[in-house]
Automatic annotation (TrEMBL):
Protein name: Cytochrome P450 2J1-like
Gene name for this UniProt entry: LOC106075284
Originating organism: Biomphalaria glabrata (Bloodfluke planorb)
Cofactor: heme
GO terms for MF: heme binding; iron ion binding; oxidoreductase activity, acting on paired donors, with incorporation or reduction of molecular oxygen, reduced flavin or flavoprotein as one donor, and incorporation of one atom of oxygen; steroid hydroxylase activity
Entry-linked PROSITE patterns: CYTOCHROME_P450
Length: 497
């Protein structure tokens, strides 16, 4: 009897194995030929997802080393390629930018909300171009002449450092405060106003933005139907709810700015965009409208807050690990600016060591490791392989930033790699925290200005120390679209000037 049951199980197992082989063979036979290599066979349904393990970031870097220019992963139903070398990045995002610069129109939120693909980040084609060009022009305009951007940043920096002073050098987690302060910079650019750090509405809003960024990278990206499982197991319903809450906040703020009735005052994005909208109407075009305005605002908040504040937090964490670097930064500030006046944007060209430190933090932390996914919109080739239309394309910035061939000693934190013998900055095209090509970060100039003004002021005013000398928090990142350090406590000790 037992033997009969055993042989029944054996036959079932053999049949299941044969079935699996046949399905795998069938899937393979339907795959287009000459795709970039993959690390092993894709399983039915999940593809290569089972190979990612607990630390996908490390795997993506490892496969980049193994396969070079480009590799393919089947992420559930979605064919995805990873672009890993400078040459392949240039080929895809510069030479063949017409084919590799779109975004996928597949998002769980789009099943529940309309107009998700308006705005800058998620749109493609002519609408994307119009939103991007207009937004860039507005930001550029703000950064010219008396440089309103720098003024807005410096005003916010002073509120931020006042708050840090209140901590009196005691250990505290300044992650949320930093996030709120950077969000206030965006807020004063877009709405022409900042929020108090203890404003409950603002605190809730920031929490929502952060949760939204975190939830947008979950497993639902590959399997949207998991949304319909009971108990919101994969937080799909929460994601949609947060998305609508963000929209409500944006609509409320747009109305507030409109009701202020200061249309002559072009010092905020909303008024400037509406003015461009009117001009466009007269020229007979139709891309600038209220729907795009609202989504542009969501985009600028989401893209411009967590990224910059995370870079600041990484920089502070690196300074806890390398106190001699922090000391050298302070020495440079004292020599070039002194301690009587706060730094301003014209000091940037004189603070070369600090600039190199920021560059090295951006390389080492590589906070947007896989950039934002692009979409291939036409059958084409890359690095000699076929890339079919509809493939998702990941710029593997992390692989570039950690390449031994490029940096020699990528594992070391060494700001000097960006300085020549005379102490001048060496610009390296391989440093690409803002990505490359047509989709390169729209806020790059603003972010660089923020990083310089925040960090120069911080290092002039404070010495940053670990909560206790024998307990320096680890350089440990968390997984997500933005790789933030784990929350840590820090002491902000005011310098005696
Ligand atoms: C240190 C700070 C920042 C980093 C590291 C960063 C990085 C990036 C990266 C990697 C991308 C994706 C590019 C691609 O698709 O290949 C991106 C896109 C974008 N970023 Fe940033 N960013 C930062 C700050 C900002 C700021 C301050 C703003 C705005 C105020 C901003 C607005 C945007 C927008 C709108 C896009 C979408 C561009 C498009 O799709 O055309 N970013 N950023």
């Amino acid at each position: 009897m037992i033997e009969a049951i055993l042989s029944y199980f054996e036959i079932s197992a053999i049949l299941a194995a044969v079935l699996l082989l046949l399905v795998t063979f069938y899937i393979r036979s339907r795959q287009p030929k000459n795709l970039p290599p993959s690390p092993g066979a894709a399983l039915p349904l999940i593809g290569h997802l089972h190979l990612l393990g607990k630390n996908p970031r490390r795997k993506f870097k490892q496969w980049a080393q193994e396969y070079g220019d480009v590799f393919t992963l089947q992420m559930g139903p979605q064919r995805t390629i990873f672009v890993n070398t400078l040459e392949a990045m240039k080929e895809a995002f510069i030479k063949k930018a017409d084919f590799f610069s779109d975004r996928s129109q597949n998002s769980i939120v789009s099943h529940h909300a309309s107009n998700v693909f308006n705005g800058i980040i998620s749109s493609s084609g002519s609408n994307w171009k119009a939103q991007r060009t207009t937004s860039l022009a507005i930001l550029r305009n703000f950064g010219m002449g008396k440089n309103m951007l720098a003024e807005k940043i410096l005003e916010e920096v002073s509120f931020y450092t006042k708050e840090l002073t209140k901590t009196k050098g005691k250990p505290c987690d300044i992650h949320n405060l930093t996030n709120m302060s950077i969000s206030n910079v965006i807020s004063s650019i877009i709405f022409g106003k900042r929020f108090e750090f203890n404003d409950p509405k603002f605190i809730k809003q920031i929490e929502m933005f952060n949760d939204l960024v975190k939830l947008s990278t979950g497993v639902l990206v590959f399997f949207p139907s998991l949304y319909y499982l009971p108990f919101d197991l994969f937080k799909g319903k929460k994601l949609v709810q947060l998305y609508f809450a963000m929209r409500d906040f944006t609509d409320e703020m747009i109305n507030e700015v409109k009701n202020r009735n200061d249309s002559g005052n072009l010092d905020n994005y909303i008024v400037a965009y509406i003015e461009e909208m009117e001009k466009e109407k007269q020229s007979g075009q139709h891309y600038l409208d209220e729907l795009n305005l609202a989504r542009n605002i969501d985009n600028l908040f989401v893209a411009g807050t967590e990224t910059t504040s995370t870079t600041i937090m990484w920089c502070l964490l690196y300074m806890l690990h390398y106190p001699e670097v922090q000391q050298k930064v302070y020495k440079e500030i004292v020599e070039q600016i002194g301690t009587e006046r706060p730094p301003n944007i014209t000091d940037k060209s004189n603070l070369k060591y600090l600039t190199a430190v920021i560059m090295e933090v951006q390389r080492k932390a590589s906070i947007v490791p896989l950039s934002v996914p692009h979409l291939c919109n036409k059958d084409t080739t890359l690095a000699g392989y076929n890339i079919p239309k509809g493939t998702i394309v990941m710029p593997n910035l992390d692989a570039i930033h950690s390449s031994k061939e490029i940096w020699g000693d990528p594992e070391n934190f060494r700001p000097e790699r960006f300085l020549d013998d005379k102490g001048n900055i060496i610009k390296r095209e391989e440093l690409m925290p803002f990505s490359i090509g047509r989709r390169i970060c729209l806020g790059e100039s603003l972010a660089k200005m923020e990083l310089f003004l925040y960090l120069s002021t911080l290092f002039q005013k404070f010495e940053f120390l670990p909560a206790s000398p024998d307990n320096v928090p680890p350089l440990q990142d968390t997984w997500g679209l933005v790789a933030a350090p784990e929350h840590f406590e820090i002491r902000c000790v005011e310098r005696e000037n």
